[in-house]
Amino acid sequence: MDTTPQHTDPTASARTPAPQPTGPTAPARTPAPQPTGTPASAPQHKDATQAPAPQRIAFLGLGSMGLPMARRLLDAGHQLTVWNRTAAKAAPLAAAGATLAGSPAEAVRDAEVVITMLADPAAARAVADALIPALRPGTHWIDTSTIGPDATRALAARLPEGVTLIDAPVMGSVDRAATGELLILAGGDTAPVADLLGLLGTVTACGGPGDGAALKLVLINAVVGGVALVAESLALAEALGLPRDLALRTLGAGPLAGAVGRATATGSYFPVALAAKDVSLATGVTKLPLLEAVHRFLLEDPSLLAEDLAAVAR
User: In Å, how far are 181, 231, 282 from 215, measured between CA atoms?
Assistant: First the structure.
């Protein structure tokens, strides 16, 4: 609704109407309408020029999650510059119209918004070393990596004046990244980039800088721990001679339903190595004996490290 105050002629109520002819030949007059502005209840038509203008976006990190996220931004008409340590991974986006940068600094130099999706704190620091000196005042940096709150706040402390960092790690795998259905856990002021984040998923405001990164550790470790518990429950069922299908069906009917769903997922890709990294970030914060055991469990079989998390429950 248009809330702009509607203005009328301030002298209209003070005018004395001019005498009107009263003779039999005087034509009947219909009083002329006084201008009163557009009523607030009148339909308001959105000008096409009010649609969000395409923005210059730099996207750094085109792994299994970054690639579909960047493609959604490109498909929405934004001017996309991309960088990836392995340049070949950027080829599909370059073929679709994105500009391929030779370095992080080159990627962000003219960007209004920078988005990073990197593997771990070490990768984030290395990329930050290269891109921070090239950031312009007014740039918004959205970090969707899972690196923990300490690393996030350390990055924020390094930013030049006029540059803002929003930590926005995501829940959801490659399938949801492709359809724009991620759960985005945002720390900081998301208002300037709300339209862009809306292309990627649904935003949950978590508080100040680093709070999104903190909540991500809570949620992802609950998921990983749940999948590990399902895996051990299935091992116990096998040792007791129970059919796997029976164990899965009944586990899925109880409190572990979500964990069973993730343990049996086929359209997701969250490598065991990254799951172990996320557990390690959590156990570095406080004493978590169960998750420490989960971390050891995840690293037991090196052949599974590149497999999706569901592999540990097969």
Answer: 18, 25, 11
